[in-house]
């Protein structure tokens, strides 16, 4: 049932815990306006950022340009821009259109949703250069993941953690990149100390850790993590799919079917429901199953 694990892995998303705007030094009102415009009209925001950059907009203009690229679904260009900003280099602001035509897909085949606006759900550790670098590194890692480049995402996350080792959101992003290459032991080791995360983000991280435990043949630990995930965010279809797989591995076939039935009820026309139906068909085709 690797299709369910792959889908759950690629759909798991974390929320960056650091608020971008609170760490910017110059012209906050213009930056706020540009960031707001990037959500409503990414192309216009990119033009605004380019013009601003030609008139001493500095890092604020580059930040808005990177955000506009991300909102436009030009994830690779956005990741490169965030990385350059984090390294202190000055990327050009006249980005070419994305030749892929916008939204990209993960290896699992489903369209990746753009991450949130970077607002904090919890407090940040401080306002120094390391924290600002962590913000930008997290944005870069998220965009690399959305572009399907796990190696680049790992590099961005590790760069951010070098300056802010306690940034939990960066640990989750690192774990997601490690999962893309099947480094399951490293995923488990990375996903520790998740308590500071908001409930929804923590739930998604626990589902990823459950997937890792399952691949390491620890189905009991996988089930424990996914149960906690569902207690934090009930009726999450990715978690229900994973719990169904864990139930099967532990011989709880009726419980597995109940979870997959619930997925179909919650998302009858979604990809998750298709996966649940496929898993149930596997059970139905096995003559040894009740």
Automatic annotation (TrEMBL):
Regions of compositional bias (Low complexity) in chain numbering: 7-20
Region (Disordered): 1-24, 86-130
Pfam families reported for this sequence: TPR_9
InterPro entries (UniProt xref): TPR-like_helical_dom_sf (IPR011990), TPR_rpt (IPR019734)
Organism domain of life: Bacteria
Protein name in the entry: Uncharacterized protein
Annotated organism of origin: Swaminathania salitolerans
């Amino acid at each position: 049932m690797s299709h369910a694990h792959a889908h759950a892995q690629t759909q798991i998303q974390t929320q960056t815990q650091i608020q971008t705007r609170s760490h910017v030094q110059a012209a906050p009102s213009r930056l706020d306006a540009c960031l707001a415009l990037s959500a409503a009209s990414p192309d216009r925001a990119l033009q605004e950022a380019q013009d601003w950059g030609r008139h001493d907009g500095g890092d604020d203009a580059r930040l808005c340009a990177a955000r506009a690229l991300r909102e436009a679904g030009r994830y690779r260009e956005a990741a490169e821009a965030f990385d350059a900003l984090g390294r202190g280099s000055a990327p050009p602001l006249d980005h070419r259109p994305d030749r892929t035509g916008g939204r990209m897909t993960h290896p699992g085949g489903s369209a990746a949703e753009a991450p949130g606006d970077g607002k904090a759900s919890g407090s940040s550790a401080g306002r120094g250069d390391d924290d600002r670098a962590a913000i930008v590194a997290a944005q870069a890692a998220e965009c690399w993941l959305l572009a399907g480049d796990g190696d680049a995402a790992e590099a961005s996350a590790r760069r951010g953690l070098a300056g802010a080792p306690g940034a939990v959101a960066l640990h989750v992003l690192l774990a997601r990149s490690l999962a893309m290459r099947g480094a399951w032991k490293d995923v488990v080791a990375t996903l520790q100390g998740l308590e500071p995360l908001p409930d929804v983000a923590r739930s998604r991280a626990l589902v990823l850790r459950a997937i890792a435990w399952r691949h390491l043949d620890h189905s009991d630990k996988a089930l424990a993590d996914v149960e906690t995930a569902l207690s934090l965010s009930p009726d999450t279809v990715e978690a229900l799919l994973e719990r169904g797989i864990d139930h099967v591995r532990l011989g709880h076939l009726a419980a597995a079917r109940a979870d997959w039935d619930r997925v179909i009820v919650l998302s009858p026309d979604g990809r998750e429901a298709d996966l649940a139906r496929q898993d149930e068909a596997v059970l139905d085709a096995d003559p040894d199953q009740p």
